[in-house]
Amino acid sequence: KAGVTQTPRYLIKTRGQQVTLSCSPISGHRSVSWYQQTPGQGLQFLFEYFSETQRNKGNFPGRFSGRQFSNSRSEMNVSTLELGDSALYLCASSLSAGFSTDTQYFGPGTRLTVL
Amino acid sequence: QKEVEQNSGPLSVPEGAIASLNCTYSDRVSQSFFWYRQYSGKSPELIMSIYSNGDKEDGRFTAQLNKASQYVSLLIRDSQPSDSATYLCAVIGGTDKLIFGTGTRLQVFP
């Protein structure tokens, strides 16, 4: 069974631009969560989607948004990029909503650099 | 105060020793606790979950939970150089979000 895939793997943007990242979950998984990982802050929860609905959201500004499609694939968008948005963006999939019972499987991440 | 706190390390232990990794959390209603391992340049992988007070063993790994003290730990017995990685503690709090600590870097030297 294929794992979680994320595209692109690396991205370089300049301040003010916007970016869209994509995540394809493991086949059969309906929940997708997004995280931002930086050396200083560690892994921070961005949002969780289940059945095309945003189920939960972390403490990030409105510039960060996402969506999930009927095939469970998810996209994350960051508008008006800032230097501080440079990070590794990870998505994780699981069978059902929430985190308490299902194992989350992480993708390889997208390394975003904002210049 | 951070919601989930870990000592950043590095924690250096000799091969064959027991590595002890600790984590404290601030949300008293937290019910679910996880340990993830992240190798350099790789994504996190779940190694243990624990939900009840006490110990939970899985091979060389033992997770320990003390909700009264808001403390969760991970013991790695017979540490191997391949265990060298960053270990992330994660907690589900009252907001139903998975909150991670910043991780403890473990180095196991031969």
Structure description:
The complex is a heterodimer of chains A (115) and B (110). Chain A is 0% helix and 52% strand. Chain A contains no helices and eleven strands. Chain A has strands at residues 5-7, 10-13, 19-24, 31-38, 42-50, 53-57, 64-68, 74-78, 87-94, 105-106, 110-114. In chain A, the strands form two sheets. In chain A, strands 2, 4, 5, 6, 9, 10 and 11 form a seven-stranded mixed β-sheet that branches. Chain A is globular and about 35 Å long. Chain A starts with a strand and ends with a strand. The mean pLDDT of chain A is 93. Helices cover 0% and strands 55% of the residues of chain B. Chain B is built from no helices and eleven strands. Chain B has strands spanning 4-5, 11-14, 19-25, 32-38, 45-50, 54-58, 61-66, 71-76, 85-92, 98-100, 104-109. In chain B, strands 2, 4, 5, 9, 10 and 11 form a six-stranded mixed β-sheet that branches. Classes of the chains: A mainly beta (115), B mainly beta (110). The interface between A and B is medium-sized, with 20 and 22 residues.
Cα-based radius of gyration of chain B, to the nearest Å: 13 Å
Give the number of helices of chain B.
0
DSSP strand count of chain A = 11
For the sheet with most strands of chain A, the description reads: 7 strands, mixed
How would you sum up this structure in a few lines?
With 115 residues, chain A is mostly beta strands. Helices cover 0% and strands 52% of the residues of chain A.
